[in-house]
Structures are given as C-alpha cells and as structure tokens.
Amino acid sequence: MSASDKKKEFRELLNNQYEWPADYLFKFIVNNEFKEELIALFKPHRVIEKPSSKGTYMSITARVSMQSAEEVMALYEKASKIETVISL
After folding, report:
1. Given this structure, which CATH class describes domain 3-87?
2. Does residue 34 contact residue 85 with C-beta atoms inside 8 Å?
3. pLDDT truncated to tens, each residue of the chain (88 aa)?
4. Whole-prediction pTM value?
C-alpha cells in the first residue's frame, strides 16, 4: 500500500469515527532530548508527561480540539519530523 493510500485510509477512518470539530487524543513516545520540541506542538493545550522506567524516554499525551481529519493528520506530520518520536 502506498503512502498516499495509507493517508487516504487514515483520513476515512478519522472521518468515520469523529464528528468534527472533536477532541482528539494524541499519544507519543520520544527521547527526553527531543520532548520539548514535541510538547511545543501542543501549546497552549495541557500535555501529560510520563517518564519511562529508566527515564530515557517520555510518554507525551495531549487532548486537543481539532477541526478536521486534515488538521489531525497535519499535526502527526509535524510530529513525525521530530527525531526519535513514535506515535501510538
């Protein structure tokens, strides 16, 4: 499946599961070195940080009011450019 097909499928899934605007829960894992860069994407929304057992990684969770599936996808795209980030 091509990247374009995956994006289309994800957009359809979002549109089937949400009625926009809607609160969307974002969850990521990132190396502590890059956590501030990820957190900055969610300002001014509340972000919950939870360190890994060894303290090397941080779980980042944010509930954000989004206007559309495209807006959700754009935020995931920005997050994917941050080194070591893993979306859940």
Report:
1. alpha beta
2. yes
3. 788 889 999 999 999 999 999 999 999 999 999 999 999 999 899 999 999 999 899 999 999 999 999 999 999 999 999 999 999 8
4. 0.89
Our measurement of the distance from residue 72's CA atom to the centroid of its chain's CA atoms, rounded to an integer in Å, reads 8
Residue 46 DSSP code: -
The sign of the dihedral angle between the CA atoms of 80, 24, 39, 58 is negative
